[in-house]
Amino acid sequence: MRRAAPSSKAEAIRRPRSRRVVVPADGETSKRRIYQSLKRAIVEMDIYGTEEPVELGERRISKEYGVSRTPVREAIAMLEYEGFVRTIPRRGVVVVRKTRDQIIEIIEAWAALEAIAARLVATKSTDEDVAALREIFTGFEADGLVCEALDEYSQANIAFHQAIIRLSGSQTLVDLTEDLLLHVRAIRRIAIGQAERRQRSIDDHFGIIDAIERRDADRAERLSRQHTLGLAAFVETHGDRIFG
Questions:
Q1: Looking at per-residue confidence, does 42 or 215 come out higher?
Q2: Where's the HTH gntR-type domain (predicted)?
Q3: 1 in a structural domain
Q4: Does 42 map to a domain?
Q5: Quick one: 49 and 107 in the same domain?
Q6: CATH code, 58
Q7: Domain count within the chain
Q8: What share of the chain in percent tops pLDDT 90?
Q9: Boundary residue ending a domain (79, 95, 111)
Q10: Residue 20 falls within a domain, yes or no?
Q11: 103 exposed, middle or buried (CB, 10 Å; 0-12, 13-18, 19+)?
């Protein structure tokens, strides 16, 4: 079953806000370009979908970008400083995967931040914003439809949570959640594969949207927090299977 193409407004709220860029010197440009590209790729990875470590090869990256290994190493050093990767002696650079307890802490932090965002959205969103949030889930009103397009629903699920953060109008919330997204995104993908979580996800999303539409900030905040804490409970219950 093919979903209808989203409106320009729905598509717009899925895209991050552009920022002013100061053009640096050539060497700095290469380092920054590689850093941003690698970080974007890491955030979109399904790092918990395999037991094998996800490795970043300096030589391959250098060849792909047509640069020396110096800016590649500098970009990787920036990612390591931010906790996205780590260097293992005699093995190389691998993407960092968190433990179950660390993931639960990350999800709890996300729950608090997104709950604040949902409250803000309920107080300042337009009718057009609400319609765009609903349109993200057009064609996914029932679990059976989700099963037919699980990958698409997983993407819509992540887009919804990013949209709530973005529509809050708080750049601080956007920045605070950016580094958490890598792990939250990956765990949400796994959770959506469970039938019980899928149906609850659908119901929760529409409940949050309804609260926002009614401008009920207290309810929007509460439902958003409960929804994400449900993901933490899922990890607590199924963590051994996910993290080995």
A1: 215
A2: 28-98
A3: no
A4: yes
A5: no
A6: 1.10.10.10
A7: 2
A8: 38
A9: 95
A10: no
A11: buried
Tell me the torsion sign for CA atoms 183, 231, 141, 169: negative
Range of the domain at 224: 99-243
* Residue 141 belongs to domain with CATH number: 1.20.120.530
- How far apart, in whole angstroms, are the C-alpha atoms of residue 9 and residue 30? 33
Torsion of CA 64, 67, 70, 76, to 10 degrees: -30
Residues 218 and 123 placed together within one structural domain of the fold: yes
- Distance of alpha carbon 238 from alpha carbon 244, whole angstroms: 10
Give the C-alpha separation, 182 to 191, whole Å.
Answer: 15
Q: What is the pLDDT of residue 26?
A: 52
pLDDT tens for 37-66 read 888 888 777 777 777 788 888 888 898 888
- Phi, psi angles (nearest 5°) of residue 85: -135, 165
Band (pLDDT 50/70/90 cuts) for residue 29 is confident
| Residue in the block written with tokens 């307890």 | 101
The mean pLDDT value for 127-148 works out to 78
From the centroid of its chain, how far is CA 216?
25
Q: Is residue 5 part of a domain?
A: no
- In this structure, how many other beta carbons lie within 10 angstroms of the beta carbon of residue 80? 14
Tokens 């717009």, residue located: 12
Q: What pTM, to 2 d.p., does this model score?
A: 0.74
Q: Residue 212 contacts by C-beta under 8 Å, 6 or more apart in sequence? A: 118, 121, 122, 125, 130, 133, 220
Nearest to residue 45, comparing CAs of 35, 60, 55?
Answer: 55
